[in-house]
């Protein structure tokens, strides 16, 4: 793919991601995406055979942005790193527009029952969880987590606390549920040491 082609594809995906986040997947037509980004149908169909493939790319786009906004996830080697990760998550949602909805959560709410997308969404969440699990494996290898602890299960629990807290924080326009969910998750993780 040429650099110009990459920019065109990225523009289509980025525009689709913005529109789907704001209006939902069902309300975001291919024509609306193309009009908003200034691309033509031939360009769209050069990169994506149909809307389903575009939604697949949008899910990947959301995951990439979520992980990029949480750089501590790649550096989890001590308990203080988990605290730093939680603060990074909270900082994202402390802004004037926050607490903002999780883009993966939005798509999961709309398309999670659709088998075409449920697997992709699960894979995205597992990638996110996997970063937490990796850090917990590091802690276990260092003797800072019990040898019988299950890093994957603990990472899943942390994600449940994060997603549930985030959904309630967004609906209530109050960051407290997210703060409480993350504090509960980190406290539970630390009790496994």
Automatic annotation (TrEMBL):
InterPro entries in alphabetical order: Homeodomain-like_sf, HTH_TetR, Tet_transcr_reg_TetR-rel_C_sf, TetR_C
A Pfam family annotated for this UniProt entry: TetR_N
Keywords, alphabetical: DNA-binding, Transcription, Transcription regulation
Residue ranges: DNA binding: 29-48
Gene3D superfamilies: Tetracycline Repressor, domain 2 (1.10.357.10)
Designated name of the protein: TetR/AcrR family transcriptional regulator
Organism: Amycolatopsis minnesotensis
Domain HTH tetR-type: 6-66
